[in-house]
Amino acid sequence: MTASDQHRRIHAALRDIPAGRVVSYGRLAARAGIVRGARIAVAALRHAPDDAALPWHRVLRADGRIGFPPDHPLHAEQVHRLRSEGVVVTKGRVRMSNFADQAHDSDGLLLQADEPPSTN
DNA sequence: CAAATGACGGGGT
DNA sequence: AACCCCGCCATTT
User: Looking at beta carbons, which pairs linking A67-72 to residues 24 or more positions away fall under 8 Å?
Assistant: First the structure.
């Protein structure tokens, strides 16, 4: 499988993440059938054309933090986009336990404490 | 072709 | 929790 194939898979996997939910770079890659692919996911997003209309803002680090450094302009942009679809972002971080998209994940434990995702 | 670079992840301190 | 450190792997230098 070529590198661009991987990128396409990443993009496809990302389109499956519903609004109001998020995924980590690593899990996104895993969904695309790529192991150890966190950095590939990054490349796939960075290479994505601006008009790709991908929900790139739904991708966060495994610990729930925004990937961009706080001073980066896209950091604010991402926070805004996430909030606009109901995701609670506190100090540049999201509670993965509450907002991670678990479709097809094996870790059965789901908890639904805080703010339920609402599209507003 | 060798070396550096990331929108990373997981483990250890 | 906040760091630091090291492994990862396509892309860029």
Answer: A67/A25, A67/A42
Instruction: Please state whether strand C lies within 7 Å of residue A113 at its CB atom.
Output: no
* Cβ(A42)–Cβ(A7) below 8 Å: no
The rounded radius of gyration (Å) of the Cα atoms in chain A is 14
Check if the beta carbon of residue A54 is closer than 8 Å to that of residue A11: yes
Kindly report, residue by residue over A71-113, the tens digit of the pLDDT.
Answer: 999 999 999 999 999 999 999 999 999 999 987 655 443 334 4
pTM of the model: 0.88
Cβ(A90)–Cβ(A99) below 8 Å:
no
Q: Rounded distance, CA A89 to CA A6, Å?
A: 29
Q: Which residues pair with A59 in a beta bridge?
A: A23
Using the CA of A34, which nucleotide's C1' is the nearest one? C9
Residue A96 CA and nucleotide B10 C1' are separated, in Å, by 16
